[in-house]
Design a protein that fits this description.
The chain is α+β, with helices and mostly antiparallel strands and 193 residues long. It has helices spanning 6-13, 47-59, 78-99, 101-110, 158-161, 164-185; strands spanning 16-17, 21-26, 29-34, 39-40, 69-71, 114-115, 123-130, 133-140, 149-155. The protein has a 5-stranded antiparallel sheet with strand order 5-9-8-7-6, covered by helices on one side. Strands 1-2-3-4 form a 4-stranded antiparallel sheet. It is globular and about 55 Å long.
């Protein structure tokens, strides 16, 4: 970070400049990145989120969001990460939605999620963990003896704006954040605890 002019990258990243730092909107909150690479915010942050944010600042090509949603496996490097992503991101998100569907919807709205009608799912929400790296979460409730399903989709341009390892960390970081919030809001009685 010290070796680049982060202020000059602000527009390309969908961020704004403060003159000496940039402010990146992430999940409805502002995160400031200064010229030393420090991440500052009024809300809690952790490495699972800060590292992808810094990778975004360093590597994003500023590709505009295409609006075409694809599963992780359809991204260039995605097939190598698909099974681990399913275990560490999609499966835990599905457990959250299965155990607390109403709370799941509330948690998503806390992070400035927007409803989507892209797929015919029961819950379909777009999150913007980074301005040019949206994530679409689709959940189908159990019905007529069929198990519930949950899938996470990325914009087709995701790898132009974030490396695959950072996409993985971002997805799993969001899951960890939701698990902690759910645990707190269920007084430690969550089925996920």
């Amino acid at each position: 970070i010290k070796a680049i002019d982060i202020v000059a990258r602000a527009e390309r990243l969908g961020a704004r400049s403060t003159g000496s730092a940039i402010v990146v909107p992430c999940l409805g909150r502002d995160f400031e990145v200064d010229a030393q690479g420090r991440v500052l915010s009024s809300c809690h942050s952790h490495a699972w989120f800060s590292i992808p944010l810094l990778a975004y600042v360093l590597h994003s090509k500023g590709a505009p969001v295409s609006g075409r949603w694809v599963p992780l496996r359809e991204l260039e490097q995605g097939s190598r990460w698909e099974r681990l992503f399913e275990r560490r991101c999609e499966a835990p998100l599905k457990r959250i939605a299965d155990a607390h569907a109403e709370l799941f919807e509330e948690l998503i709205s806390m992070f400035s999620g927007a409803r989507s009608d892209q797929f015919s799912s029961d819950i379909s929400v777009v999150l913007y963990p980074l301005p040019k790296v949206p994530i679409l979460i689709c959940y189908w409730k159990p019905e007529d003896g069929m198990e519930s399903k949950l899938h996470v989709f990325f914009d087709a341009t995701a790898e132009q704006n974030l490396t695959m390892d950072s996409l993985f960390a971002l997805g799993t970081g969001i899951v960890r954040m939701l698990e902690k919030i759910m645990y707190k809001h269920t007084d430690g009685k969550s089925e996920l605890s």
